[in-house]
Amino acid sequence: MTVHTSDTIRREAERLLRAARITRAPVSLRDVVSHLNLSLVERRREPFVAEAALVPLGDGHAIELRGPAHERRLRFTIAHEIGHFLLHGERAVAERGGATSLATARYEREADQFAAELLMPEALMRQAVLEDGLDAGHLADRFEVSLGAMRQRLRRLGLAERNAPSHPA
Question: What is the pTM of this model?
Answer without folding.
Answer: 0.84
